[in-house]
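Okay, any thoughts on this one?
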Amino acid sequence: MTEGRTVRFADEWTTTGTDAAAGMRLNGWQGGHGTSKAGALPDLDINTTELRGLSGKAGTLHGRMTTALTNLGQAHSGLTAATEGFACTAALGKVRGSWEGRLRDVRDECERLKTAFTGAADAHDGNEDDTKKEMSSLSSKRPWHEDRPKSPIENFS
């Protein structure tokens, strides 16, 4: 999702340009074939375990930001009444509001990243499974030349 809309593969592909096609390979493919131009570009190698690990870390940070917001609220409870008449009371309220806004923004971004990393890992796992099934079905088919009809003059004597 980008700013409230789903980015389709075709849309993303048009923004990368045609040069990206030269360096694309299947994940984990170790073949030495391809153009010399492709060899100079880095391979796409997605590790879903690492993506899920990043999702977990983002989730941990989300929890810590929630705790920090709770602690900030508790630390400021009763502060207004206790500092009544002091010139700094209004300034402390503004500082607290500023920090709460920042902590909420960080917490929300951590939640967004957690969801994005998990979604990317799930999508990649699905793509890998689909690709393996497709490749397996292709490799189990008879070669194209075996499907051709036999020549009528093949057994002619």
Q: What stands out?
A: DSSP finds six helices and no strands in the chain.
